[in-house]
Design goal:
It is a single chain. The chain has 699 residues and is of the alpha+beta class. Among the domains are: 102 residues, PH-domain like (Roll); 272 residues, no CATH class. The protein has 14 helices and 28 strands. Keywords: Acetylation, Endosome, Golgi apparatus, Lipid transport, Lipid-binding, Membrane, Phosphoprotein, Transport. This is Oxysterol-binding protein. Belongs to the OSBP family.
């Protein structure tokens, strides 16, 4: 193959904590399926300092940055490497993956037959049989008696017969039954006493036994693929060996692996019965509702998420949950325990990103395309700090399909930064020509109003749409976000798939932007939030763009929450502004004229959002929908919060099942499908355009 080429060159290799990163000369030997490295190019004729067999290896680009990747050999040895840039990393990763696939498939074709191994179960009895009641000193070899027989050299390996796989499958089923008996025996132990069901050693036994069974299932899956390749000559094009799903449903394992037993319907609190009795959303009014900002009151809720008590108390539940998750597993459909939840919906979290409306409104006051792009970058980077509620990483509620959230902000006009030598009132004529004046002839208020609305438009996949506008300044932003979460070992990664567009109607400009990935780190100790990834902001009309990198903390050394970026003119490729710092602390902006500006996010004033009281909210508005869960979390009653949460989720599942049976499509309320995205049904750019057309007709 043209792609099977031997490549060589210098890469940085991570050695250890003391030595750190060192330059080494690497050689990819495709014929032998080896990755070798030397001290330098001159010593290439000597014996390699290290060699990795690539057959069965896993080549993984790192999410730390765009330069790092790892080579994990089947033997367990790992090389952590760093290229000079993203392009070079991609070159090495692609060539290594091609070589790895080639030699892995070659092994599959020539794999020793299963009949050369003898398997015998030490016991096939139930949990009460002597075979299961083993002494602690016995090891795993006494459970599976595996004998490897050396084949005579030079003899051709016979093809694996299907009946061998049937035998192995039967043995696996017996082992799974014994593993279930083990789990059941542990969970039947009393909650208190000398030996309890929450004993740390027993929890570890549960976790390792589950991991062992999952690993055996994965190995069996690989054997099936190898058998198929022997029958057909090679693996089909595009075939991948993927990890299997867990055998035990996570939804029924909140407490120490046991299913939740909730009270009978008649004993449920009235609030739970109410949550379950709300009728099908499409039968409710799905007509868009105009929210009057005058009905909204300044929010007095201040739910900081710095309490670790519940997490500390429920560590055994976390251990049990981790025992059933796999690296890279999609967590979208996994029901997570209630105690890790924030006391707000994801839709409200998106609103909290708008907590600096003065910086948002000031974008359109920039005197040039360059200044407006820089102002947008400043607003963008300051939005994430307030979006988090405290330093502890907790998860917002997953919005129910059809759930909405409304709020607004009032910002005094004299608090909004304007162009040099002007003031905010100087911009008022532009909007007065397109928007109607107050019919009562009252004086204009001395504040700007920013209105916000969000809606959960899809459940699978989970997609949220949100929209914000400032009518007085002729500006609005529309975005849709699909949250994809994955298990990464001791952390959870969330990818924010989607796009947002900021419209500055006064200038006829559109700014497209994306969102970074989020990570919950150290989930077994003190969980904390980290942002990572590269985002881009572009304005086609002005020709300015911004590239922003959220850096995750390196394996060794480095700072937390670091961010770097630059704004440039695309035509000339000239950088007009550079930014660096921490997205939750201090940002430094350096301009092309040599000036430097520092923004201390911890000292920025936060404008409280305005929200309607609960009694005026609709049944599917976030705070009213989740009020009983929130109240129970505030009271520290995790069981009650779980009960209310479960009622909401069960109702959503029933509604989804009913829609599927009746083939009834879901009706959104505020957002309309537009290609791959979602757009607000009454965006400001349509309102202003209609007003301008009407004014031209009247003239």
């Amino acid at each position: 193959s043209d792609h099977m080429e031997n490549i060589c060159g210098y890469l940085m290799k991570y050695t250890n904590l003391v030595t750190g990163w060192q330059y080494r000369y690497f050689v990819l030997n495709n014929d032998a399926g080896l990755l070798e490295y030397f001290v330098n190019e001159q010593s290439r004729h000597l014996k390699p300092r290290g060699t990795l067999q690539l057959a069965g290896a896993v080549i993984s680009p790192s999410d730390e940055d765009s330069h790092t990747f790892t080579v994990n050999a089947a033997s367990g040895e790992q090389y952590k490497l760093r290229a000079t840039d993203a392009k070079e990393r991609q070159h090495w990763v692609s060539r290594l993956q091609i070589c790895t696939q080639h030699h892995t498939e070659a092994i599959g074709k020539n794999n020793p037959p299963l009949k050369s191994r003898s398997f015998s179960l030490a016991s096939q009895g139930s949990a009460n049989s002597p075979g299961v009641q083993r002494r602690p000193s016995q090891n795993a070899v006494s459970f599976f008696n595996v004998g490897h027989h050396r084949l005579p050299t030079g003899k051709r390996v016979p093809i694996v017969q299907p009946d061998h796989l049937v035998d192995v499958r039967e043995m696996m089923s017996q082992a799974e039954g014994q593993q279930r008996d083990l789990i059941r025996s542990i969970e039947c132990l009393p909650a208190s006493g000398h030996l309890t069901s929450l004993d740390q050693d027993l929890l570890m036994l549960k976790a390792t036994s589950m991991a062992t069974m999952n690993c055996l299932n994965d190995c069996f899956h690989i054997l099936q693929l190898q058998h198929a390749s022997q029958q057909k000559g090679s693996l089909p094009a595009g075939t991948t060996i993927s990890w299997l799903e867990p055998k035990i449903s996570l939804a029924n394992h909140f407490k120490n692996g046991a299913a939740q037993n909730f009270p009978a319907e008649i004993n449920k609190p009235a609030s739970v019965r109410e949550e379950q009795s709300i009728t099908e959303p499409c039968q409710l009014t799905r007509e868009p509702e105009e929210i009057n900002p005058d009905e909204e009151l300044e929010d007095i809720c201040d739910d900081k998420e710095d309490d670790l008590g519940a997490v500390e108390e429920q560590r055994s539940v976390i251990l049990h949950l981790l025992s059933q998750l796999k690296l890279g597993m999609d967590l979208t459909r996994v029901v997570l325990p209630t105690f890790i939840l924030e006391k707000r919906s994801l839709l409200e979290m998106y609103a909290d990103f708008m907590s600096h409306p003065d910086l948002f409104i000031a974008i359109t006051n920039g005197s040039s395309g360059e200044e407006r792009m820089i102002r947008f970058v400043e607003y963008y980077l300051t939005s994430f700090h307030e979006g988090r509620k405290g330093a502890i990483a907790k998860k917002p509620y997953n919005p129910i399909i059809g759930e909405t959230f409304h709020c607004s902000w009032r910002m005094p006009k004299n608090n909004v930064a304007t162009d040099a030598g002007t003031n905010s009132s100087a911009h008022s004529p532009s909007e007065q020509g397109t928007l109607p004046k107050d019919p009562d002839g009252q004086a204009e208020p001395d504040y700007y109003t920013v209105k916000f609305v969000a809606e959960q438009v899809s459940h699978h996949p989970p997609v949220s749409g949100f929209y914000a506008e400032c009518v007085e300044r002729n500006m609005c932003v529309n975005a849709h976000v699909w949250t994809k979460s994955k298990f990464l070992g001791m952390s959870i990664g969330v990818t924010m798939v989607g796009e947002g567009v900021l419209h500055l109607l006064e200038h006829g400009e559109e700014y497209t932007f994306s969102l970074p990935c989020a990570y919950a780190r150290s989930i077994l100790t003190v969980p904390w939030v980290e942002l990572g990834g590269k985002v881009n902001i572009n304005c086609a009309k002005t020709g300015y763009s911004a590239s922003i990198n959220f850096h995750t903390k390196p394996f060794y050394g480095g700072k937390l929450h670091r961010v770097t970026g630059e704004v440039k003119q695309n035509m000339t490729n000239t950088v007009v502004c550079r930014v660096q710092g921490e997205w939750n602390s201090v940002l430094e902006f350096t301009y092309s004229n040599g000036e430097t500006k520092y923004v201390d996010l911890t000292k920025l004033s936060v404008t409280r959002k305005r929200v309607r009281p609960l009694e005026k909210q609709g049944p599917f508005e976030s705070r009213r929908l989740w009020q009983h869960v929130t109240e129970s979390l505030r009271d520290g009653d995790i069981d009650k919060a779980t009960e209310h949460k479960r009622a909401l989720e069960e109702r959503q599942r029933n509604e989804e099942r009913l829609r599927a049976e009746t083939e009834t499509p879901w009706c959104t309320k505020y957002f309309l499908k537009d290609g791959d995205g979602w757009v607000y049904h009454k965006p400001l750019w349509k309102t202003v355009s209609a007003a301008q057309t009407q004014q031209m007709d009247s003239n």
